[in-house]
Amino acid sequence: MCKNSQDIICSNAGTCHCGRCKCDNLEGNALIHGKYCECDDRECIDEETGLMCTGHGMCYCGNCYCEAGWHGDKCELQCDIAPWEIKKKCTSPNGKICSNRGTCVCGECICHDVDPTGDWGDIHGDTCECDERNCKAAYDRYSDDFCSGHGQCNCGRCDCKTGWTGKKCEHPISCPISAEESLRKCQGDSHLPCSGKAIDP
């Protein structure tokens, strides 16, 4: 009865007594709480000031929720631009804040799912509008399989090299005319490819 979703008794932050968790709060401050002692509000205390969320936010289950104009893990950073300007700077062309792919911090989008090395993110752009994962044939964040190796990925869209076509440049162009023009030439009067008399290869 005292095990959390990871099957750990009282989240290793308390003891089970009569089927209920009694959280370890040695100083009597009730900073560790929750049904399974899963919330540790000590995570919200700023080391410099000793205040919960630096006095500029509320702590809920170990996470600071900052007041308007403040940000940071412990609400320690102040933003000096107006809230409407913050929203305007983070709004993408499709009208969504950071294209629903990032977090707006003080008028700047911090995009989710960045490369662990910090060199290059799969999601990038001023408003996180570019998603390079759209350019990969089979998504693997560590592969260089952009545009099937036959094109350049530009803001989530493949620009194919000469001789290649398709959303991910996966189809070779063996004919110098477009697929539509080729179909028109082969349909004839019957409007069926090759007048319905084609032989499958």
UniProtKB/TrEMBL annotation:
Alphabetized Gene3D superfamilies for the sequence: Laminin
Every Epidermal growth factor-like domain range: 47-75
Organism: Crotalus adamanteus (Eastern diamondback rattlesnake)
Limits of the Integrin beta epidermal growth factor-like domain: 4-38, 86-129
Alphabetical UniProt keywords: Disulfide bond, EGF-like domain, Glycoprotein, Integrin, Repeat, Signal
Name of the featured protein: Integrin beta-like 1
Gene Ontology annotations of biological process type: cell adhesion mediated by integrin; cell migration; cell-cell adhesion; cell-matrix adhesion; integrin-mediated signaling pathway
GO MF annotations in UniProt: integrin binding
Residues of the signal peptide: none
Record-linked Pfam families: EGF_2 (PF07974), EGF_integrin (PF23105), EGF_Teneurin (PF23106)
Entry GO terms, CC: cell surface; focal adhesion; integrin complex
